[in-house]
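Item description
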Amino acid sequence: MAAAAAAAVGGQQPSQPELPAPGLALDKAATAAHLKAALSRPDNRAGAEELQALLERVLSAERPLAAAAGGEDAAAAGGGGGPGAAEEEALEWCKCLLAGGGGYDEFCAAVRAYDPAALCGLVWTANFVAYRCRTCGISPCMSLCAECFHQGDHTGHDFNMFRSQAGGACDCGDSNVMRESGFCKRHQIKSSSNIPCVPKDLLMMSEFVLPRFIFCLIQYLREGYNEPAADGPSEKDLNKVLQLLEPQISFLEDLTKMGGAMRSVLTQVLTNQQNYKDLTSGLGENACVKKSHEKYLIALKSSGLTYPEDKLVYGVQEPSAGTSSLAVQGFVGATGTLGQVDSSDEDDQDGSQGLGKRKRVKLSSGTKDQSIMDVLKHKSFLEELLFWTIKYEFPQKMVTFLLNMLPDQEYKVAFTKTFVQHYAFIMKTLKKSHESDTMSNRIVHISVQLFSNEELARQVTEECQLLDIMVTVLLYMMESCLIKSELQDEENSLHVVVNCGEALLKNNTYWPLVSDFINILSHQSVAKRFLEDHGLLVTWMNFVSFFQGMNLNKRELNEHVEFESQTYYAAFAAELEACAQPMWGLLSHCKVRETQEYTRNVVRYCLEALQDWFDAINFVDEPAPNQVTFHLPLHRYYAMFLSKAVKCQELDLDSVLPDQEMLMKLMIHPLQIQASLAEIHSNMWVRNGLQIKGQAMTYVQSHFCNSMIDPDIYLLQVCASRLDPDYFISSVFERFKVVDLLTMASQHQNTVLDAEHERSMLEGALTFLVILLSLRLHLGMSDDEILRAEMVAQLCMNDRTHSSLLDLIPENPNPKSGIIPGSYSFESVLSAVADFKAPVFEPGGSMQQGMYTPKAEVWDQEFDPVMVILRTVYRRDVQSAMDRYTAFLKQSGKFPGNPWPPYKKRTSLHPSYKGLMRLLHCKTLHIVLFTLLYKILMDHQNLSEHVLCMVLYLIELGLENSAEEESDEEASVGGPERCHDSWFPGSNLVSNMRHFINYVRVRVPETAPEVKRDSPASTSSDNLGSLQSSRRPKVLQRENSGTAQVFSLVAERRKKFQEIINRSSSEANQVVRPKTSSKWSAPGSAPQLTTAILEIKESILSLLIKLHHKLSGKQNSYYPPWLDDIEILIQPEIPKYSHGDGITAVERILLKAASQSRMNKRIIEEICRKVTPPVPPKKVTAAEKKTLDKEERRQKARERQQKLLAEFASRQKSFMETAMDVDSPENDIPMEITTAEPQVSEAVYDCVICGQSGPSSEDRPTGLVVLLQASSVLGQCRDNVEPKKLPISEEEQIYPWDTCAAVHDVRLSLLQRYFKDSSCLLAVSIGWEGGVYVQTCGHTLHIDCHKSYMESLRNDQVLQGFSVDKGEFTCPLCRQFANSVLPCYPGSNVENNPWQRPSNKSIQDLIKEVEELQGRPGAFPSETNLSKEMESVMKDIKNTTQKKYRDYSKTPGSPDNDFLFMYSVARTNLELELIHRGGNLCSGGASTAGKRSCLNQLFHVLALHMRLYSIDSEYNPWRKLTQLEEMNPQLGYEEQQPEVPILYHDVTSLLLIQILMMPQPLRKDHFTCIVKVLFTLLYTQALAALSVKCSEEDRSAWKHAGALKKSTCDAEKSYEVLLSFVISELFKGKLYHEEGTQECAMVNPISWSPESMEKCLQDFCLPFLRITSLLQHHLFGEDLPGCQEEEEFSVLASCLGLLPTFYQTEHPFISASCLDWPVPAFDIITQWCFEIKSFTERHAEQGKALLIQESKWKLPHLLQLPENYNTIFQYYHRKTCSVCTKVPKDPAVCLVCGTFVCLKGLCCKQQSYCECVLHSQNCGAGTGIFLLINASVIIIIRGHRFCLWGSVYLDAHGEEDRDLRRGKPLYICKERYKVLEQQWISHTFDHINKRWGPHYNGL
C-alpha cells in the first residue's frame, strides 16, 4: 500500500503542484504512520529503503532551481504554481513524517516535554533590548534577555540595559559565563535529573528524515551559488536564493526551539560523518548529486581553497594562475597564495586610492601558514553548512539557526571546532565583502558565544591550534595592505607599515578578528599558552611592527596642504584595538612573581623586533627632522611589560634592560613625539591643517592616554634613570630646538626656530622636564592612588557628571582588568574627593545635571597642576583649573592675588628608578636654570612667567630630592681656583646654588649691545675688558677652546654619544666633534657671531633673592624668616607657603635651601645684608621696547575688556531679573507698561525700537509686543484633585470624558439639539480647547517701527528658528518670542479714570442707561491707522487657532460664530490668568500677570469688533434679566426651536457679552450694575442646581420651611425662602417627577445642614466672582485684596460692590445678603422658571442635566508618571501602535492625555502630517508634550516648531541618560516634572526653551 501511495504521490505531483488535494493529506498521514510502524520492527531494512525512496521523490521534486536537472522534474516544479508550492508540499511531507502519522503540533508538544531547560539560550538580533550585570558576569560579554533579567534578583547590582549592536544570546543558566546567583527562577534548577528519558520511537522518524532534509538544503545552497565573474556575487542573486530558502531554514529553527531532545537529534545528524559521506560524495549514479558535488568543488577552488585530495598539485608548488584548469573558465583565485601579486582587481583599486608611488608590499610566507590559510576538508553537514553560511555572507536566519543549537553541549564543541577550522576563510570572505559592517556584526554575534567560555576556548586552543590560526589569520589580513615606510631613511628603508588609507583599516574591517583575539586572551589558560610559545610571540611582534611608525606626518614648510587626510582616525583605532588591547589582555595575566618568565619572553622578543626596526629604517643617532609618527606600539609593549615586571613581579629592572646604545635609540622617538606636541601647540604645524591638532589631542585623550602617552613618558623615565644625565638633558633641549636660546647674551640667533615660537617651545621643554621628573604613574603609585590622582585632575578642570568622569578616567582598557568603571573603588574614591551638587534649575530654564565638584581639602592639598597638564586635551582646561583654584583660594581667604600653580609633594620613587633624580643634579641642568634665572632677571625677550614658574619648580624638585646632606666643609675647598674652567664645581644642586659665577664668555651677533665699547664702569681690571673689542675674538676662541665657557649643549651631547658608541677612550679622543656642528651653524646671510665676555658675579641664590625684589617691586624685600624664628628651619613644611604666587615660591625655595645646608643659610644672610644696589636700568632697544609695550598694551586692553564685560554682565543680570522672570508667574517684579505721572491723563508709551516716548494716537498707534497662541490647557482641567496616571498596563486606560473640554462640548451639543442655534451660541463660552491666549513681555513699539523691523528680519539670511513669514519675531529689547502687535487704544490711563467716580444713581436708572448704551449700534471708526491695525490683529487672533475651534454654529459662517469666538477669547484669557494665580484670588495683589497683562488692550480690540454685531433688542438677554414680560403660555409650543432659557445661560459668558457690547471705556457704576443683575441670575441657578441634587424628602422639607418665612421683610435676601420658591416653581414643570428610586440611591444621602447648603451655594458662585474681580482689576486698575480661602467669597463680593457697605460682619456670612434684585424677586424667578417649564415637561432628564453645571474645576495637571522609568519602557517599547498595528521604531506617548503615537512614523502619516504633529493639533491645539520612549527625553511641539526639552528621569547621580545609552536605572525627578508642568500651564515654552527648529510636519 505504501508503495502505491508513494507512486500516487509521484503521479499527482506534476499535474497539480500548487493544490495538494485534501485526500492527499490523509495519504500523507497514513503513509507516515505506516512507515513508522515498518521502522519500529526489529528488522527495519525494508522500511528504511521505502522511506529513502519516498524522501528522494519528495525532496528532489522540490528543486526548482535546477532547471537543467531533468525535464519532467523542472517542469513539474515550475509548472503553474511556481516553485513555492512544491516546496511547501515537501515541508508538509517532512512535518507529517516527523510526526509519524500524528498531528505535527501534538508532536511538537510531546518533544518539548522532554526538554531539560537548564540554559535559556534565547538568540536575538541587532537592536534587541538586553541587560548586562557586571556583578553576576564572569565574562565581560555576558548578557541576559529582559525576561530572565527581571526574573532574577539583581537589586543593588551594577547592571545596565543596552541595545544590542550585533545581536547576542541569553546566558542565563550558563555557569561558565555568569555566577549562578544571577540565574533567573526558570534556569536555577539543574533539571536534567528529573526529566524522563526520551522514548525511542518519538524521534525515530526524525533521525531518518532530517539527514535527507539537510542534504537537500545544502544542495540548494550549492545550486544557488554562482561564482561571480569579477566583482563579488551580486547581492541580488544571493538574496534571491535565501528568500527561496526562508521556509526551510525557518523549519529548522522551529525544530531547535523544541528543546533539548530535538537538539540532540539535530546534533547527531549535523555531526555524523558517515551520513555526510554517503549522501554528498557525488560518487553514486544520481546525476543531481554528482552535479551538485561538482558545483561544491568549484566553489571551494574559487575561494582560493584546496580540497585536500588535490594537495599534491596545489599545496607545495606556488600555483600560478596557469596551472589551474579553472583559469580557462575565467575563475582566478581571488586571494591567491601570498607569493604572487594580488589579482588584478585589487591592483586597480590601488591606483584609484590615489596612493601614487606607494605600492603595496607583499611578503611571502612559509608553508605552515599555507595549511591554515588554504586547506578545507568538510567531513560533516555542519561543516559544509557553515561553509555556505560564510559564502552567503552570514544570512541572519542561518546564524540564528546555528546559534539556537548552542545549548546542546556536544554541538557547541563541534561547532566551535568547525568555526575555528573556517577562520581563515571567514577572514577572506570578510575582506571581499561589500557589506563588511553587517557581516562583522554577524561574525561577532557567533564568535562571542563561543570564545567567552574559558573551558571551550582552552579545549580548542589545545586541539585545534586556535592561537596559531588567529595570529596567522591576522597577519595575513594585514599583509594585504602594507606599504614601504617613509620614516627616517626614505630611500633605503626596509620597513613596511600598514597603509591607513586602505578600506581594511578605514572601515575597521579587522575588528571582528581582533575582538575574538582579545576575547580569548582574557582567559588565563589561553594567555599562558600564548606567552609560553616563543614562535607565536615572534609572529605577534612581527604583526605589531606593521603598525610601528604608521601614518607618518611630515611638516609642511611652504604651502598649506591641499587635502587634509583623515587617516589618523584609522591609525589610532588600529593601534588601540589591534596592539594595545591584546597587550592589556596579556598584562592582566602577569600579576604575580611566578609569571616572571612570561615577561622575560615578551621583553626579549620585543627588543629583538625593535632592533630589527632600527636596522630596517637605517637609524643611527639623529631622527630625521620635521617628521613625526604617533605610533610606536613596540616601544609601548616594551614599556608596559617593564612597568609590570617591576610593579608586580619583583623583577630586577636592570636584568631586562638593554645596553646604553639601545637605550639611547629607544628614547629618541618617544622624545620626538613630546617635542612635536610642543611644536603643534606652538602652531608650527599649521600648514598641515587641523588634523595634526586632532592627532595631538587623540594622543592624550582619555581613551588612548594610558596606551600612548603614559607608556612613552614611562619609557623616557626609564631611559633617563639609566643614561648619563647631562646627555639626556642636552638631548631634550636639542629636540625642542631651544639650545640657541640658552645663552646669557641678550640677543642670539636660532637657526632652527623662528623667534615667535621660541617662547612656547621653551615652555614646552621645561614643562616636559617637570612632568618627566614629577610623574609617578608607573614609578611607585598604587592603583588606588592613580585613580585618585586621575579623578582629582579631571574634577579640578571642571565639575563633572558621574558618567563623564567614568568616561574621562582612563580605565585599564582590558575589560577584565578589575578596575571596572563603577566598581567599588571608583565610588569610594569619588566620595572621598568630591561633593555631589544635586541638579538645580536656573530661571533661564537650562536644566542642570547632577555634578561632582572637588572638596575644599582637595584644592588645598591635592590639586596637582602637573597631572592636569598631562591630561588636558584642550589647553583652555589648564586655565580653567587654575581659575577654579584661584577662586577657591580667594573664597577660603588663603590667598587674595593671582596664585601660581602649587608645588605638590610626590609619592616616593620605587627604588629601581632612583636614577631618575640624577637629572636634577647634573651640571647641564644647573647651567640651564642659572641662565634662565639670569635672563628673566635681566628682562631678556621671549621669557614668560610660565618659564620662571617651571624653573622654580625644577629647583624645588631638586631640593626635595637632593642627595644626603653634603658636608659643608668639603664643598668650600678650592672654590675660586677651579671656577674658571667650568660653571659649577660639583653636581649637587644644594651646593651649586651658592656657587658664584663671575664671567661667562658668550657668542653674540656683532650687532648685540654686549659688543659695543661702552663696558660697564664697575668692571674691575681683571675684566679682560680689552677683549670687548670686536677685532680679537676669533684668536681668543682658538686659544681658549679647551677651557672657555662656551656653553654648547649640542656638542656636549654629541660627545657623549660618540663615546658610548666607540667605547674605547683612545678613539673617543680623536673624534671629538667641533664645538658647533655644521648642522647648527648660522646661515651666511646672518650677522657674524663674535665672542664677548660678560661679567655676571651671581649665584643661583643671589639671583633668587634679586628676583624676589623684582617680583615684589620693592628693594630689600626679602628678609630671611629664620632670623626671627629658628624653628622654621627644622620643619620647613609650613602651610603659609603652600599657596601663593612667585614671591611665595621664591621664599619657599630659599627656606628649603637654607634648611638643607648651613653654608647656604649663611650666604643667604650675607646677600641680604649687602644693600642690593638697584638693578641698573637696562638699555632697551627700540625693537624690545615695542614688544614690551605691545605686551603691556595687550594686558591693559585685556583688563579693560574684563571690566566692561563684568559691567555688562551685571547690567544684563539686573535686567533679566526684572524683565525675564517668565518661569514663575507668582513672584516676579512688575514691569510697568505705562510710565504715566498721576496728573497726566494720557498714557505714555516708550517704543523699544526708536526709543521715543509718547501717547498712542489714531495715526501713529503704539502696540504691545504679544504672543498669540492656541491653548487647550483649560480643557484639561478635571473635577478631581488626583492627577490621572500614565497607563503602564493594558488594563489602565485614560478616557477624556471628565475633562472640562468634554463637559462643555456635551453641554453645547445638548443645547443645540433642543434650542435655537443663534441663541445657543450666546449661552456658553468656547475656547476650552483651542482658545487663543494672549501674552506680552510688556514692551511697546510703534506699529510702523515694527513693520520696518519685520522687513529687516525678512532680509536677514540667518534665521533664528522662527518664521518671519508667519509674522514671528523676537522682542527687540528682551528677545522674547512674539508673533503679533496689539494696538494700544488712545486715551486715558487705567488708574485715574474720570469714569471711575461712583455716581449716586439708583440701580433702575443704571439699568436703563446700560440698555440704551447697548442699543446704540457701534459704527466702525473711520479708516485710521489704528482701526486698520485693530482689524489686522483681530485677523491674527482668528488665525491663531484652527477652524474647528472657532466654528460651532450649525450654519457655517454665521456671524454668531464670530461673536461667540470674540467674547470667548476674553474668557479664555481671564480663566487662564486665574489658573496662573493658583485657581483662586486668595493671594490678591497685582501679580505680574496683572501688570504684564494685555487684557485691557485686548478688551478694546474685542469690544470694537463686537459692537459691529448689534444683538436684536428682542433677544438681548439684558431685557430678560431686568424686565418682567407678559407670559404667554402658548409661545413655547409654537416656535419650532425656542430660545435658550435664561437659567441655562452661562453667567460668566453673559457678563462678557454685556460688557463688550458697551461703548469703551466703560463706567465703573455701569459695570457694578451689570454684575449685580447677573448675580441674581447666578444665585437662582445655584438654588436650582442645589434643588436638583438633593433627595425628594429634603426638597419637600425645604419647600415648606421656606414658604413659612416668605412674608418676612427681607425674604428676597433669604436663601431658604428663595430655595423653597424655586422648588415650587420648578415643580410645575415635571422636573422632579421622573425620579425613580434608583436616582435617589445614586445621589449620596448627605444630611444638608444650613452650613453645608451655604457652602454649596458659595462654591457655585465663586468662579463667577473670581473672573469678575479679575476683570474689574484689569479694566479699572483696582488692586485685589488678599484673604484666607474661607473668606474669599465675602471679600470678593464686597470688592465688587455686591455687599452693601453697612453690612455687619458679626453674623456668620450669608451669601444671599449680596442679592440686589432689580425687579421683585419672586416675579422674575417665576418668569425664568416658566421658560424651562415647557422644555422639562418633555425632556426632564436633559432639563435636569442642564441645570447642574459643573463649576468646580481643579487645576490642570500633566499625567502622573511612575517612579521608575523601566516600568514605562518595558510596557511601551514593545507596544503596537493602534493605528498601524506595528511596533513603532520611535514610540512616543503624550503626557497630556496618554495617547501612544509613532514619532516620525510614515505608517501613520495623514495628509503629509506625521502622527505626533497631528496629535499635538488635536490634543493641545498645536502644543504637544511627548515622552520619547527609547530616549527618555521629552520633546515639545509648538505649532510649526519643536524642541528637545530634556528628561524628567535622572539616574542615581542626577544625570539624564538621553537615548538610554548607559542604560542605568532612571528615577523621576519631581522638580523637573513640576517645571515642565508649570511651563505648560503658563504657556512659556517659547520663552524658556532656546533651541527650537522647524519640524516640517515630520515628527
In short: DSSP finds 76 helices and 29 strands in the chain.
